[in-house]
Design brief:
Structural class of chain A: alpha+beta
Bound molecules: flavin-adenine dinucleotide
Low-confidence stretches of chain B: 1-11
Order of helices and strands of chain A: HHHHHHEEEEEEEHEEHHHH
Number of helices of chain A: 11
Number of helices of chain B: 14
Number of strands of chain B: 8
Order of helices and strands of chain B: HHHHHHHEEEEEEEEHHHHHHH
Oligomer: heterodimer
Chain lengths: 355, 405
């Protein structure tokens, strides 16, 4: 755990307590079964709004707390542990884009509402099944944006879109010219196709801003992955201590102990890489792009390993819908793929380092 | 990403001490020794010191700054943690290095400071602080490696002294050592409780060393035989039968020093893999290292190294902010070993046949060193507790996994 200041410690503890009491995995199961259009529990999201979580990266003058990305990451990590469905990561990334590039009017109009959870926002970049910001066809003429974005997180419910076009990032706030088609996916969260057909758009910034906002969104997502991996690991470790086979608890078998030790090792490296990226963002470091690719690649590999081992080490029970392991497995692969998988980020890391 | 220098950047500068350290270093560090630290010296055995090296070692030894955190009354520097860090930063700044090292500094000294009597500390600590005495570690035996507690070397109580008989093996630097800290059996009926921690003079009659040659070609360690060696009772550290506890404490010091816990910068010294690959392999039209598979494995290695550097830094910050030793510490030895070995393997793969030279014409000095580094590096996942044993420790101590019934 990074060294936290008092505010951050309080925030983390509060988020952890809330997630454990109000949003355990059973709450996610309920959402999954009820299948609301939004893909999350709106009452729970309202509570998150009241606690100010959507405002963690919003400047104070616009009603946020400006605690920064490490703090946002702490909260997302706690939510990730319990697979809490919420539009927090997407909304925060969109808020950051507005705070960085929005006009004074746009900031004043949207940020205070975002900060209290009244408005759900998202960032729409990809136009195919794999993250590829180099392949963007969406364009804007006369302030009207046209293009189709695939797998937009929270695309089913977002009232506000931050959209990547060929020449940079735009804000689309109206519903005119915006069509959503639900994509039902393995993790039971919202990933809609969103078509913009001459939607009114306001420019936030050029390709530099697009790249920056993608990095922020990626780092936030990595924090959620960290929480998931920690929890998948700890649930598995507990299970091995109770399950008896061959007259022994599974936990006594060295072959399994070494697999757990290996996962633990990868988790420690994952935590350092993820916290490192969040800290790099907060410090405004010039090598933030590298730090983010490091975090996402390592996080993807570590979560991949842990989520698969969770199923394997649970044996038959891990294959059942009744058990939570499947939820971790499915969400894990979605998050690995989102904002670029490990291979994408390794390639980017090589390029950024000139080899 | 943070460069190695950034990872070692000042955290809590204490300015008055910084000036003191800077002035003293300016007055005492011979500039011609800048960056001439030989990391392999502890392995290769004693080398003839140049006059400048001898002078530098003497100055540091007298000042106690080779062991800056040890108490001044025994010849240490008596510095606090923050000051030690400042001293390291100031040394790194001018390319100075610590000429005092070895097992006495890394593991025996800290253990003796904790468990030794006043007389033992006064006798043994100052010569270590001045770098005058070489210690070796008499733990492993032919039948006691990973299962150290099954050791058999026996010390029989003869009233005023012990009579020691038995064999140790893999004794690093045994042929150059003046003294040996050894685990011996003083009771054959009990496994762990029958072990004692004994200090043995290597010049005593009955001590014999036989160097063993390693796959890297060097012979940095020995089989060590003890035949009717007489050891004074005053050389027992702690109480009889308490050796296992003391010996394990020493292993903690050994592991933390082996995992590169000191300085991330040192661990990542040398040419970055990407640059090495461009040099040996060339690039394609897009400017990428030729061989995309190799290129990606370089990235994995580089990412692993950086995540490790960030973890070293995180663990240091966490323990400094008094959250106690971080759980991350337990993974350090294995990750450090894995990265060291990956680095060597990758370098050789990049260099091709040039990376596999043994001696003689046709290879650069760097290339020949690479072969040696590679082969020597195979030891890091074995000594000081093998990777498998480290995983056992993680599973049992950190994860609370259960003992086999
Ligand atoms: C270069 C070098 C320097 C050394 N210097 C010293 C020194 O100065 N002083 C000293 O006392 N010793 C020294 N050692 C010894 C070192 O500590 C031992 O080699 C080490 O503890 C392993 O013991 P072993 O070689 O007997 O292997 P073994 O214990 O026989 O192990 C063989 C293999 O089996 C595995 N294994 C063993 N037990 C288990 C288990 N329970 N579960 C899973 N796997 C297991 C091991 O990990 C290893 O892979 C040195 C070793 C090397 C290589």
């Amino acid at each position: 755990m990074a060294v936290l200041n008092e505010e951050q410690t309080m925030l983390r503890d509060m988020a952890r307590e809330w997630a454990d009491n109000e949003a355990p995995v059973s709450a996610f199961r309920k959402v999954r079964n009820a299948a609301p259009t939004e893909g999350y529990d709106t009452a729970a999201w309202a509570e998150m709004g009241q606690m100010g979580w959507a405002g963690i990266v919003v400047p104070e003058e616009f009603g946020g707390s400006a605690f920064g990305y490490l703090s946002l990451g702490m909260v997302l990590e706690q939510l990730g542990r319990n697979l809490t469905a919420s539009p927090l990561a997407s909304t925060a990334a969109a808020a950051a884009a507005i705070a960085l590039g929005g006009s004074d009017t746009a900031k004043a109009e949207w940020l205070p509402k975002i900060a209290v959870g009244e408005v759900v926002a998202t960032v729409a970049v990809d136009e195919g099944p794999n993250h590829d910001p180099a392949k963007i066809a969406t364009s804007v003429s006369d302030g009207l944006l046209t293009g189709t974005k695939e797998f937009v997180a929270e695309g089913d419910s977002a009232q506000l879109f931050v959209v990547a076009a060929v020449d940079g990032l735009y804000l689309v706030s109206g519903d005119t010219g915006v069509t959503r088609s639900t994509r039902k996916m393995a993790d039971f969260r919202s990933h809609a196709q969103v078509t913009f057909d001459g939607a009114k758009a306001e420019k936030l910034g050029g390709p530099d801003l697009t790249a920056k906002v993608i990095d922020l969104a990626t780092a936030a997502l990595s924090a959620e992955m960290l929480g998931m991996a920690e929890q998948a690991f700890s649930v598995t470790n507990d299970y091995l201590k109770t399950r008896v086979q061959f007259g022994q608890a599974l936990s006594t078998f060295q072959a399994l102990q070494h697999r757990m030790a290996k996962m633990f090792t990868e988790l420690e490296l994952m935590r350092s890489a993820v916290e490192g990226a969040l800290e790099a963002i907060d410090a405004g470091r010039s090598d933030t792009d590298q730090a983010v690719s490091l975090a996402k690649a390592i996080a993807s590999d570590a979560l991949h390993l842990v989520s698969r081992e969770m199923v394997q080490l649970h044996g038959g029970i891990g294959m059942t819908d009744e058990h939570d392991a499947g939820f971790y497995l499915k969400r894990a692969y979605v998050l690995e793929t989102m904002w670029g998988n490990a291979a994408f980020h390794r390639e980017r890391f090589a390029r950024l380092n000139g080899y | 990403m943070a460069s190695a220098a950034e990872l070692d950047a000042p955290v809590n500068p204490t300015d008055a001490f910084r000036k003191e350290a800077r002035d003293w270093l300016a007055a005492n560090f011979p500039p011609e020794l800048k960056g001439k630290d030989n990391a392999m010296s502890a392995i290769d055995g004693p080398t003839e010191l140049s006059p400048a090296e001898a002078q530098w070692k003497k100055a540091v030894g007298e000042k106690g700054w080779g062991v800056p955190a040890w108490p001044a009354q025994y010849g240490g520097g008596g510095l606090g943690k923050a000051e030690v860090r400042v001293l390291q930063e100031e040394m790194a700044r001018i390319g100075a290095w610590n000429p005092i090292g070895g097992m006495g500094v890394m593991m025996f000294g800290p253990t003796l400071l904790e468990y030794g009597t006043e007389a033992q500390k006064q006798e043994h600590i100052p010569p270590i602080a001045r770098g005058e005495i070489r210690w070796c570690q008499g733990y492993s035996e032919p039948g006691a490696g990973s299962d150290l507690a099954s050791l058999q070397m026996f010390a029989e109580d003869k009233g005023d002294h012990y009579l020691v008989n038995g064999q140790k093996t893999w004794t690093s630097g045994g042929q150059w050592a003046d003294k040996c800290f050894a685990l011996v059996r003083t009771d054959k009926t009990r496994k762990h409780e029958g072990i004692s921690f004994l200090l043995i003079d290597m010049t005593s009659p009955g001590v014999e060393v036989k160097p063993i040659r390693l796959i890297s070609g060097s012979s940095p360690f020995c089989e060590t035989f003890f035949t009717n060696v007489s050891v004074p009772k005053g050389n027992l550290v702690g109480r009889e039968g308490e050796g296992w506890t003391i010996g394990k404490r020493l292993l903690q010091h050994e592991r933390s020093s082996l995992s590169g816990g000191g300085s991330a910068a040192r661990m990542f010294a040398g040419k970055p893999m990407g640059a090495l690959a461009r040099e040996y392999r060339g690039t394609d039209e897009a400017g990428r290292v030729n061989d995309s598979d190799l290129r990606m494995r370089i990235v994995r290695h580089e990412m692993d190294s950086r995540a490790f550097a960030l973890t070293l830094r995180r663990a240091a910050l966490e323990s400094r902010s008094n959250q106690g030793p971080s759980a991350a510490t337990s993974i350090m030895k294995n990750v450090g070993a894995r990265i060291t070995q990956d680095r060597a393997e990758l370098s050789i793969e990049i260099m091709g046949m040039n990376g596999l030279g043994w001696e003689g014409e046709g290879f650069s000095e760097d290339e020949l060193n690479q072969t040696r580094t590679w082969l020597w590096g195979k030891a890091v996942s074995i000594y000081g507790g093998s990777s498998e044993i480290q995983n056992n420790v993680i599973a049992k101590r950190i994860l609370g996994m259960l003992d086999h019934q």
